[in-house]
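EI: anyone free to look at a 382-residue chain?
SC: sure, send it
EI:
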Amino acid sequence: MKRPFGYFVHHQGRGHAERCAAIAAALPADRPLTIFCARDDIFPALPPQATVTRIPSLFEPSGDEAGTMDWVATPETLHCAPLGWPGIRQAMGTLAGWFASADPALMICDVSAEVAQLARICSVPHVKILQHGDRSDPGHRAAYDGAAGLLAPFHLDLAQPDWSKLMRDKTCFAGGLGVDLRVPEREVARQRIGVLAGERMILVLSGGGGDGFAAAPLGVGARSTPDARWITIGKVQRDWHATEPANLEHRGWVDDAADHIAAADIVIASAGNTTCQQILAAGRPWLVVPEWRYFDEQHHKATALGRAGAATVLPHLPSSAHAWAAALGEVTRSYLPERQKALIDDAPATLTANWLEALACRLWDAPVALAKPTPSQENFAV
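SC: here you go
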């Protein structure tokens, strides 16, 4: 067996676990993979050589925290490192212990600047997942600059212009990573979700990483388009003042999001990574409304999508009937399905697995002999 890979998976949303499972399935069968995550019930099927080790959450308190040390400032190189948390000590201790005992070839970090820096401190080469957003802070810079490689689960054309050539040169861009790229046939999808062939359908999609859109603006949109059937999937924030018409239906969480996307005439969604890759693969008219995320991740991603000609972007949902009419009209006018589909790579999981294997080979299989100290250097040895 080869030296193992480690993989830290953030447990918010579904995208982190889904792309981990996709990579695991594409790696060689003789490459052991140990996954560290605060949850072990969020993963799709994993291959036999992949195992999940549960660790405490790095940001959710358990009740055992000291709670008396928040007056101590957090250094700029860290994001979430409160003092007096036994769960964080246990999680980091588990990781450091595994580094020492398993002697891994690589540690993949999706995502935590602290875990990435821990790997580097422990002399373990790491691959950091690259995310959109303003990541110019010292914590992200340390994680990115110290990485042996960066992995972007999106196409190169969605790269931010402020990313340096050095960053891009060590990045594997994999559009569609972690998403089932088999797009259902439109009419078959409509039959499966109960939408008639001739109906105009507007889908509102919320991913698993946030709280979803507010109901009130959706009600305004649905009332302004009585000829369309509006369907929401995922979370919706209920507003007491929302007056929802009969053509607006809330379905909540569904197992067939791909069918709903394929069936839609227009998709309204935020900019979570899995959501983006699903819509791009299906090539549907798309209104992107970014949700709040740390470091303005979704706002930067939405800007990248608009710049690439893949979607219409608004900072928030329209707040009046005439604003909805203008927005939906722009979505239809600017629709470029081939441009959307071009942002999905062929076999992104295989591309990523091959890149990881090549990186591990470069790191470990071709060692460079260290220069021996000169006599003058030996004289100063301690």
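EI: The mean pLDDT is 94.
SC: 👍
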